[in-house]
TrEMBL record:
It comes from the Archaea. Keywords: Membrane, Oxidoreductase, Transmembrane, Transmembrane helix. The chain crosses the membrane at residues 6-29, 41-62, 82-100, 164-184, 190-216, 228-250, 262-280, 292-314, 360-383, 395-416, 437-457. It comes from Aeropyrum camini SY1 = JCM 12091. It is a multi-pass membrane protein. InterPro entries: ND/Mrp_TM. One of its GO terms (cellular component) is membrane. This is NADH dehydrogenase subunit N. The keyword Transmembrane helix applies. One of its GO terms (molecular function) is oxidoreductase activity. It is found in: Membrane. Pfam families: Proton_antipo_M.
Length: 461
């Protein structure tokens, strides 16, 4: 067995490689333009380094316990390590799918430099313990994704980036309010503490697209170039999700019974409206980009159900491990499916009709990814929903029933999409070879992770 110290040092070294490349890549364009042809390869090195670091983090955590780095200010546990691996896989898929197209963007140097910075911020935000480090990581990740959203340069992407910046600024203000309350020591009075909790929940709710902070998602996810959104939705979103789970877990253990019940009720209400609104909106669109955007809102609602289970179990003094495992698996299922699907939507410009006609490799792969989001066994999305919904019944069977009904509703627009994708079309958009390979790879990963999921859950205990 490899020593714990060696693995821990390797992870730390690989993560700082991300930061180094985030500085080196822009410097190459300025100081040595003749070396610019190597920049794509350097970005690939950054993605590969992050993938290896994430896999090593999973190995370390499941073998030795929590991974601690950065003078004990960063701690990765089993949940965050699994989500980190999901973000790394999504980043790799998005990078491959955008490999050739990104070169055509007028500001493509920014993409190659900001992707490593996004990965660096993801690692730190998921594991941050200090409120100031959370804010610093939050700002790094937020600014990087704002710019990435607008990098394709088309009118829709630029407009989406402006909207995203506006929403992100509001979220950051809420985050700053929470940190100010934290350092002011606002335990009494209760009203101020409640305000601080609402502020942090609102800030992350904006980033995740949870009700009532969901309104920006269709205008950003549904309009910007999907190759850029693959990073925002498949990588950055998992970092913010990981932060929310950690906060819910921590807060629930220190609240009074009344406060804990209020927190669980707040999460449950948001979950119900978020997934219902997302699914009903997806039913009313025939555009692939819009469908994926609304579906992302619905997926956030399902994840909130898992957080309700965590809040309820922790406040009752019960170990929430099974709910945490479910959230981790569902987050991975979401990231691995959404990254290639958003990139596919960019290639087809949102058109659906005929895109999979005669392309059985892509067709089967897309069907597997959608089935995972739907929760069909034995795919990883099934295990994620199973282990989130089961413990949530201890809080409310009605909440779980609503979640199951919503999952059924989502099957309608997923099946409709597949039907339309197989229809004859006069001029169906073609799918590039790299997209076909990525879709097949994502489907295989989804299937393999689904088969391994029960073992992963057992290892959580």
């Amino acid at each position: 067995m490899v020593s714990a110290e060696l693995v821990g040092n390797a992870v730390a070294g690989l993560i700082y490689v991300e930061l180094a490349l985030a500085v080196i890549i822009p410097a190459i364009y300025v100081a040595a333009p003749g070396l610019a042809r190597y920049v794509q390869a350097l970005t690939g090195v950054a993605v590969l380094a992050f993938l290896i670091a994430s896999a090593a983090t999973v190995y370390y955590v499941f073998s030795y316990g929590n991974l601690t780095t950065a003078n004990n200010m960063i701690v990765h546990d089993k949940l965050s390590s699994v989500m980190l691996l999901g973000a790394a896989i999504a980043a790799a898929l998005a990078y491959i799918q955008a490999y050739y197209k990104a070169e055509e963007w007028p500001t493509h140097p920014g993409y190659y430099g900001l992707l490593p910075l996004t990965l660096f911020g993801t690692f730190f935000l998921m594991g941050s313990l200090s409120p100031l480090l959370i804010l610093a990581s939050w700002l790094v990740l937020s600014v990087a994704t704002y710019i990435i959203t607008g990098l394709p340069g088309d009118r829709n992407s630029v407009a989406a980036a402006v909207r995203y910046i506006y929403v992100g600024t509001l979220a950051t203000l809420f985050m700053a309010a929470w940190i100010a309350a934290f350092y002011a020591g606002l335990r009494p009075p209760l009203a101020l503490e409640a305000l601080a909790i609402v502020a942090i929940m609102a800030s992350i709710g904006f980033k995740l697209g949870a009700f009532p902070f969901h309104w920006w998602v269709p205008n950003v996810y549904g309009r910007a170039d999907g190759r850029a959104i693959a990073i925002v939705a498949g990588v950055a979103k998992l970092a913010f999700l990981g932060l929310l789970v950690r906060l819910v877990y921590t807060l629930s253990g220190g609240l009074t019974p009344f406060e804990a019940d209020a927190l669980a009720l707040l999460l449950a209400a948001s979950a119900v409206v978020t997934m219902t609104l997302g699914n009903l909106s997806a039913l009313n669109t025939g555009d692939l980009r819009a469908m994926l955007a609304y579906s992302s809102i619905a997926q956030t609602g399902y994840l909130l159900v898992g957080m309700v289970a965590v809040a309820n179990l922790v406040s009752a003094g019960v170990n929430p491990t099974i709910a945490l495992a479910g959230i981790g698996l569902q987050a991975v299922a979401y990231a691995v499916a959404k990254a290639p699907l958003f990139s596919l939507a960019a290639e087809t410009e949102g058109r659906v009709k005929g895109i999979l006609k005669g392309d059985w490799a892509s067709a089967v792969s897309v069907a597997i990814l959608l089935a995972s989001l739907l929760g069909v066994p034995p795919l990883i999305g099934f295990w994620g929903k199973l282990y989130m919904f089961l413990p949530a019944t201890s809080y409310s069977s009605i909440l779980v029933l609503i979640a199951l009904v919503n999952s059924g509703v989502s099957s309608v627009y997923y099946i409709r999409f597949l039907r339309d994708a197989f229809d004859e079309a006069d001029e169906a958009p073609s799918i590039t070879e790299e997209s076909r390979y990525v879709l097949v790879l994502a489907a295989l990963v989804t299937l393999l992770l689904g088969l391994a999921a029960p073992l992963v859950v057992n290892s959580f205990f």
